[in-house]
Amino acid sequence: MVRTGKKGTSKVSLLLVCMLALAVFLAACGSNGNTPETTPDNTNQAPSETPAAGEETAATEKTVQDAMGNEVTIPANPERVLAAYYEDQLVTLGVKPVAQWSVANGAQDYLESDLQGIPLINYDLPPEAVAGFNPDFIIIGSSFLVQNGLYDQYAKIAPTYVLGDELIKDWRATLLKIGELLNKTDEANAAIQAYDQKVADTKAKLEQAVSDKSAAILWLTQKQFYMVDGNLSSGAVLYRDLGMKQPNLITDLPEEAQATWNPVSLEKLAELDADYIFLVNSDSGQAAETLDSPIWKGIPAVKEGHVYEMSTKSSWLYSGAIAGQKVMDDLLSALEMK
Question: Residue spans with biased composition (Polar residues) (predicted)?
Answer without folding.
Answer: 36-48
